Amino acid sequence: xxxxxxxxxxxxxxxxxxxxxxxxxxxxxxxxxxxxxxxxxxxxxxxxxxxxxxxxxxxxxxxxxxxxxxxxxxxxxxxxxxxxxxxxxxxxxxxxxxxxxxxxxxxxxxxxxxxxxxxxxxxxxxxxxxxxxxxxxxxxxxxxxxxxxxxxxxxxxxxxxxxxxxxxxxxxxxxxxxxxxxxxxxxxxxxxxxxxxxxxxxxxxxxxxxxxxxxxxxxxxxxxxxxxxxxxxxxxxxxxxxxxxxxxxxxxxxxxxxxxxxxxxxxxxxxxxxxxxxxxxxxxxxxxxxxxxxxxxxxxxxxxxxxxxxxxxxxxxxxxxxxxxxxxxxxxxxxxxxx
Length: 339
Prior knowledge:
The protein is of the alpha+beta class and 339 residues long. The protein folds into two domains: 1-61, Uridine Diphospho-n-acetylenolpyruvylglucosamine Reductase, domain 2; 62-123 and 164-338, Uridine Diphospho-n-acetylenolpyruvylglucosamine Reductase, domain 3. It has twelve helices and twelve strands. The protein has helices at residues 15-25, 38-43, 84-89, 91-96, 98-105, 110-115, 118-122, 135-140, 169-176, 280-286, 293-304, 317-338, and strands spanning 8-10, 29-32, 51-54, 69-70, 76-78, 179-184, 187-192, 212-218, 224-231, 242-252, 258-270, 277-278. The strands form three sheets. A five-stranded antiparallel β-sheet has the order 4-5-8-6-7, covered by helices on one side. Strand 6 and strand 7 form a beta hairpin. Helix 10 (280-286) packs antiparallel against helix 11 and helix 11 packs antiparallel against helix 12. The N and C termini lie far apart (52 Å). The relative contact order is 0.11.
């Protein structure tokens, strides 16, 4: 049985207390929300903080449906410690951001969604078959670059780690243009979701370790729609080996009617790189066009070409690459069918 190591557990009630506790703990301190990612990692000795600082007692991070705040531009703001179950059950979010509630519903199992949080899924550790193992297993192969070693066993000649981003919510956040408010010892800053991630399996976030994700800000649902499709072996609880978030904004027409042509688009892939990978070429194939079969085929082909899944997760990597074309096509066909 895997057991947690010994650690000090702190429960601040304010952001200021949390930031001060992290400063006192230094590099050996880590923040935790629901713990569904950190605690298994601690059991496998991937992460070994001596001090764990819980964010769940900070009221402003725990905004429930009744506490979701409308923005002046018509969007929404809510706390990152909202659980995935609360998010997916929220009538406020479901009404205007069904793509976000759908992605939250696809994460893991009901029990883990009751504990796991929106912020935790946005900051989810990257995954790899050579990394997500017990300490003894990793020691037997001489560890890997992501923890305790110097070689990426997926690509041994590579100077970087290729562990993949396996979040379901992150590709959606990038696709719809969400923004994140971060607070740390140096003050606060707002980061677009698309700049929140690095394409590096180790340093996969631009958020600093002493910063706290305080707000998730969604743009107004103004003439756009989005969908999320997920590929995994077991539909009940597996991580994605491919995620496709497709976002389109329709050209305005006369009155309240839209022309049916795509003004802007974003296609974001999860599970194929160390970050949610936006494919500008796929968006360019849709811009100014109706969502006909030809435009969808061009976008799917454009998304297929740069998708380079490696042999570090489930299924054969060449088949997963082929599925990129299939799932982008299905996502865009769903958007077309909603009109």
